[in-house]
């Protein structure tokens, strides 16, 4: 076991030490495509009953008008997050008529990119910017990729942790700089070990043929309408999904906050010839926000991001520079097809323990050689994670994925035992259940999904529709009275429409002037 990790954990669990890691804040952002009863992406606008996608805190849209995004508040227990997500799903289904929330990460039944409408947010400058940014993403990476759904897990340690941890680390004052340094250590270790999350939570081993849009592939045919990777865990996180070749050469360091911000700012200000060929404002329409390597910070795809809640109109890098890192966003999860809300409490408990483990573990800077191994391990876990005997790269040598995974789980055990002593239990149980997936790859979500499709004799599309329709009926049959957050969601929907109108009325600049000021 890492000696520094062991010493930190021992200090945190010493007799008389207050339980400073119980009750950290966690939240989830979960995406879902709205689809028709025939399985095509819905062409309808964002339902009016759900309020404004621009200003609703809990229900918005991502790339497409049909790609809903559900956002929970930062809550103190996994069951609370699960309850809030369930309430959002129930509330949304009351407004969808015959439409269905797609239960998979990878979309299906896409005839062309025209089937994927850009999200619309109104007439304000900020709304136009959001749509122009998405138009640029479509040009750069293709709209098919942007229709992929995922789950993001946000986590921050309790406020009481910092003073105690500062004493352990012999830091006199718990400054924003110290907190950022600790969260960046967590971020680097998540990067090093995110292959484990791809293996354990990957649930997209197959894709509809239409997703490839006639591109050649080395995938095998699963049925007449779909392909799959025999050992794949998450094609969403492979080179077919978010890990696109377009960003393969883009590296944003997490070795210090200055480097992280500097690398993002540099990418946002560095022209990219391929994007210059697209043009920026063409025939009066913004085809993208700029022709640089990144339009804005959020375009950088990563399995983990250090973040701070930004003020109105404040850029993410400016927020980090102003006050440092506030929480981390782990972005490696596929939508779970085996959970009605797309993520389980067991997964959230594992992720919380994993985040704490990564925080306490020694985290030296990542050099270029290690970065190359990290990228390679991600690709191996995503595309071949269930292959017997698969080896990953660690410290200049090779190690079997299962062996390395067992080591991590063994080291996470005391973290889970510590968390189980708090008000919410089930951490050790979650660890043990996920450890079983390392012993038998067919128990992973990706393995179960392929086995289910074959056992039921269904095509991938039929299987996906069966799950999605089943969850639709589940939420529609729930009594409205059990929805603990219905009044809050209704109030937010109404207030968000008024808030959008206020933003539109307050605009005084032209869109050109607004963009110039934003990027100044």
Summarize the structure.
With 520 residues, this protein is α+β, with helices and mostly antiparallel strands. It has helices at residues 3-12, 78-93, 125-141, 143-146, 160-168, 176-201, 209-212, 257-269, 273-276, 316-323, 345-360, 368-384, 401-420, 427-439, 445-456, 460-477, 486-506, 511-519, and strands spanning 25-35, 59-61, 67-71, 100-101, 151-156, 206-208, 220-223, 226-228, 281-282, 285-286, 304-307, 327-333, 391-394, 397-400. Strands 1, 2, 3, 4, 5, 11 and 12 form a 7-stranded antiparallel beta sheet that branches.
Q: Which range best describes the helical content: under 10%, 10-25%, 25-40%, 40-55%, 55-70% or over 70%?
A: 40-55%
Count of domain modules = 1
Strand fraction equals 5-15%
Radius of gyration: 22 Å
Q: List low-confidence stretches.
A: none
CATH topology (fold) name: Creatine Kinase, Chain A, domain 2
CATH architecture: 2-Layer Sandwich
Largest sheet: 7 strands, antiparallel
The coarse silhouette is globular
- Which class do the helix and strand fractions yield? alpha+beta
The end-to-end span amounts to 48 Å
The number of helical elements comes to: 18
Describe this structure in words.
The chain has 520 residues and is an alpha+beta fold. It has a single domain (3-14, 23-519), classed as Creatine Kinase, Chain A, domain 2 (2-Layer Sandwich), CATH 3.30.590. Helix content is 46%, strand content 12%. It has helices spanning 3-12, 78-93, 125-141, 143-146, 160-168, 176-201, 209-212, 257-269, 273-276, 316-323, 345-360, 368-384, 401-420, 427-439, 445-456, 460-477, 486-506, 511-519; strands at 25-35, 59-61, 67-71, 100-101, 151-156, 206-208, 220-223, 226-228, 281-282, 285-286, 304-307, 327-333, 391-394, 397-400. The strands form four sheets. Strands 1, 2, 3, 4, 5, 11 and 12 form a seven-stranded antiparallel beta sheet that branches. Helix 2 packs across helix 11 (345-360), helix 6 (176-201) packs across helix 11 and helix 13 packs antiparallel against helix 14. The radius of gyration is 22 Å and the shape is globular. The mean pLDDT is 95.
């Amino acid at each position: 076991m890492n000696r520094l990790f062991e010493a930190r954990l021992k200090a945190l669990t010493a007799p008389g030490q207050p339980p400073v890691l119980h009750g950290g804040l966690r939240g989830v952002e979960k995406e879902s495509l709205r689809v028709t009863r025939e399985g095509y992406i819905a062409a309808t606008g964002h339902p009016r009953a759900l309020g404004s996608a621009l200003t609703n805190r809990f229900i918005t849209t991502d790339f497409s008008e049909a790609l809903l995004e559900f956002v929970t508040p930062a809550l103190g227990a996994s069951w609370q997050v699960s309850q809030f997500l369930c309430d959002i799903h129930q509330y949304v289904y009351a407004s969808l008529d015959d439409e269905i929330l797609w239960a998979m990460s990878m979309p299906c039944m896409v005839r062309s990119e025209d089937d994927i409408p850009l999200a619309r947010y109104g007439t304000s400058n900020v709304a136009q910017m959001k749509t122009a940014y998405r138009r640029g993403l479509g040009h750069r990476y293709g709209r098919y990729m942007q229709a992929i759904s995922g789950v993001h897990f946000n986590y921050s340690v309790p406020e009481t942790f910092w003073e105690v941890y500062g004493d352990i680390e012999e830091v006199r004052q718990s400054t924003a700089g110290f907190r950022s340094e600790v969260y960046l250590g967590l971020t680097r270790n998540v990067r090093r070990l995110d292959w484990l999350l791809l293996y354990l939570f990957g649930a997209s081993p197959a894709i509809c043929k239409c997703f490839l849009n006639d591109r050649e592939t080395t995938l095998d045919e699963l049925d007449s309408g779909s392909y799959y990777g025999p050992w794949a865990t998450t094609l969403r996180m492979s080179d077919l999904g978010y890990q696109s070749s377009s960003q393969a050469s883009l590296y944003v360091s997490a070795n210090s906050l200055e480097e992280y911000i500097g690398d993002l700012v540099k990418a946002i200000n560095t022209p990219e010839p391929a994007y210059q060929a697209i043009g920026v404002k063409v025939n009066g329409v913004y085809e993208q926000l700029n022709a640089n390597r990144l339009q804005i910070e959020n375009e950088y795809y990563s399995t983990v991001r250090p973040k701070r809640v930004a003020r109105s109109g404040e850029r993410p890098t400016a927020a980090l520079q102003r006050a440092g890192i506030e929480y981390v966003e782990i972005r490696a999860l596929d939508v779970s097809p085996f959970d009605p809300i797309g993520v389980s409490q067991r997964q959230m408990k594992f992720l919380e323990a994993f985040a704490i483990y990564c925080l306490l573990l020694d985290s030296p800077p990542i050099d270029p050689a290690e970065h190359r191994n990290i990228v390679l391990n991600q690709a191996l876990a995503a595309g071949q994670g269930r292959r017997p005997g698969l080896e990953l790269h660690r410290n200049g040598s090779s190690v079997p994925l299962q062996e390395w995974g067992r080591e991590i789980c063994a080291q996470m055990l005391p973290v889970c035992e510590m968390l189980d002593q708090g008000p919410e239990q089930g951490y050790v149980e979650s660890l043990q259940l996920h450890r079983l997936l390392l012993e038998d790859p067919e128990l992973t979500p990706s393995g179960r999904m392929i086995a289910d499709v074959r056992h039921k004799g269904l095509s991938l599309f039929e299987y996906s529709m069966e799950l999605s329709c089943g969850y639709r009926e589940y939420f529609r049959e729930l009594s409205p009275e059990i929805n603990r957050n219905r009044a809050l969601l209704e109030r937010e929907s109404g207030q968000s429409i008024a808030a959008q109108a206020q933003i539109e009325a307050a605009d005084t600049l032209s869109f050109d002037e607004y963009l110039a000021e934003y990027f100044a």
